[in-house]
């Protein structure tokens, strides 16, 4: 039963779909989303869970060969239509959101640039997420196609398939479950500083006798894993801990830092800071890009 529970949670997530287009215009419908492409190009979609959606077959291409695009072009995701009302400028909700954004951005900058500051803010950060764990997915759209699109696009650059993967700041486990779906033979671990978040994430998968997906309370600055433990270390919407990522990453392994809303994400780190931080610990930048409203950054430890 535990294995079935794990599998069902993985398959509830949006699915990553890659499409390579030719020169002729084409259209595809995926769930409630529609994408039209004119000319050569490629798109990456996160398909909503459920039955496969119909795909409209493009007209025959002109007599010249199909053009395949580069990896960076293939990671552009369809921008979803968000129906949630936006807060009125100047309202209480707007001011509250602005305050949270500024606090998150300040804390993220401190951790990314001055890791020694983390012990001072670790306790308040843990309490903050413990208090907000209940209903977190409804308030933040965690687990939606838009939320996961940057992480999904970054995973296209990870090859060969990892044997062991780690999701830092996993929250309710959506990132870890997406990784498990995209790499069905990988063992995936998700860690978070919030005990309440991990409790909810573990409840989603139940008891997994195979142990393919598991969650654990842990501090990303002091991970409870041996050196060279993972082929992939990913994180979505959290500050980067460069030294620990490099320590647990195996030679040839990939590191991913993604932000669901790009620069509008409270816990967002600019590419320049990521490049300098990873190079300082011997991990080389590989790719960066955009997906839906978000951004992603991929680095790799030399073999």
How many extended strands?
11
- Extract low-pLDDT stretches: 17-45, 50-87
Percent strand: 15-25%
General shape:
globular
| CATH class term of the largest domain | Alpha Beta
**SS-based class:** alpha/beta
Number of domain modules = 2
Largest sheet, described in full? 7 strands, mixed
The name of the CATH superfamily of the largest domain reads Vaccinia Virus protein VP39
State the helicity in percent bands: 25-40%
List the secondary-structure elements in sequence, H or E: HEEEEHHHHEHEHEEHEHEE
Number of helices: 9
Tell me which CATH architecture of the largest domain applies here. 3-Layer(aba) Sandwich
pLDDT averaged over residues: 75
CATH topology of the largest domain: Rossmann fold
Radius of gyration: 19 Å
End-to-end C-alpha gap: 39 Å
Order of strands across the biggest sheet? 7-6-5-8-9-11-10
Care to describe what's here?
The protein is of the alpha/beta class. The chain has 2 domains: 12-75, no CATH class; 116-300, Rossmann fold (3-Layer(aba) Sandwich). 33% of the residues lie in helices and 23% in strands. It contains 9 helices and 11 strands. It has a 7-stranded mixed beta sheet, with helices on both faces. Strands 1-4 form a two-stranded antiparallel ribbon. A two-stranded antiparallel ribbon has the order 2-3. Strand 6, helix 7 (195-205) and strand 7 (213-217) form a beta-alpha-beta unit. Helix 5 crosses helix 6 (174-182). The longest helix is centred in the middle third of the chain and has 22 residues, at 92-113. The N and C termini lie far apart (39 Å).
């Amino acid at each position: 039963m535990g294995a079935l529970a794990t599998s069902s949670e993985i398959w509830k997530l949006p699915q990553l779909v890659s499409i390579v287009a030719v020169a002729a215009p084409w259209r595809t419908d995926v769930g409630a989303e529609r994408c039209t492409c004119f000319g050569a190009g490629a798109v990456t979609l996160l398909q909503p869970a459920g039955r496969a959606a119909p795909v409209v077959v493009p007209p025959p291409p002109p007599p010249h060969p199909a053009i395949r695009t580069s990896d960076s072009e293939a990671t552009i995701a369809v921008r979803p239509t968000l129906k949630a009302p936006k807060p009125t400028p100047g309202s209480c909700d707007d001011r509250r959101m602005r305050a949270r954004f500024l606090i998150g951005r300040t804390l993220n900058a401190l951790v990314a640039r001055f890791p020694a500051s983390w012990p001072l803010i670790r306790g308040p950060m843990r309490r903050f997420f413990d208090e907000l764990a209940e209903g977190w997915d409804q308030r933040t759209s965690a687990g939606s196609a838009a939320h996961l699109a940057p992480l999904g696009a970054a995973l296209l650059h990870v090859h060969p398939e990892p044997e062991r993967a780690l999701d830092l700041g996993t929250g309710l486990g959506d990132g870890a479950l997406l990784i498990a779906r995209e790499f069905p033979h990988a063992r995936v671990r998700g860690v978070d500083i919030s005990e309440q978040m991990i409790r909810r994430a573990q409840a989603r998968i139940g008891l997994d006798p195979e142990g393919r997906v598991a969650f654990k309370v842990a501090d990303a600055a002091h991970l409870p894993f041996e050196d060279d433990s993972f082929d992939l270390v990913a994180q979505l919407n959290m500050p980067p801990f460069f030294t620990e990522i490099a320590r647990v990453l195996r030679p040839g392994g990939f590191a991913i830092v993604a932000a669901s809303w790009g620069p509008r994400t409270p816990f967002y780190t600019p590419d320049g800071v990521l490049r300098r931080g990873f190079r300082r610990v011997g991990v080389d930048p590989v790719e960066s890009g955009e997906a839906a409203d978000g951004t992603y950054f991929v680095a790799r430890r030399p073999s």
